[in-house]
Write a structure and sequence with these properties.
The chain is mainly α and 199 residues long. The protein is built from 10 helices and no strands. The N and C termini lie far apart (57 Å).
Amino acid sequence: MSDGAERKLGLRERKKIKTRATIRMTAMRLFREQGYQATTVEQIAEASEISPSTFFRYYASKESVVTEDDYDPMLIEAYRAQPLGIPPIQALRNALRDGFSRISQDDREGMWERISLNYSVPELRGAALTQVISTAETISLETALRNGKSAPDLKTRAFASAVVGVVIAAQMHYIDHPEREFVDIVDEALALMDEGFPL
């Protein structure tokens, strides 16, 4: 691929990221102003100055604007980059810090609101659960690969599900403590898991 083609691809990708972020910010503003249930895809599209069909190119549904994000690919990439000799929980904690350092300040500031919506809006709970299951399976596969296995087994699935459960607990704690950084809460919770949850 020529340098010019790579530059064009980079511009297209940046435009996609910007449009996706604009849709999310607009949707969250409308959810605040008129409520989640009262806000339609058509309203989000109009306020974002795009067509509804363009909205569906970026998000599969209204629910996915809240439940989906671009964090998992970054976190998985950072997990893969961790040295193979360190324990998986430590590798995940390192990856978490690295991945969150790449999240924009705007995204970090909007995180509490999205997490709160996931737990307070009944329609979002099912979509959020689907997302959680997908994340657990991805972590399970990556952990299996780190341990020289070609596919997840009971151990890696149990580990990944425990990690996701810890993240859910961290999210619920974050809802009650928005003054804290979410990454610090997750890291603290994963440290407790690493210590065997001393109570």
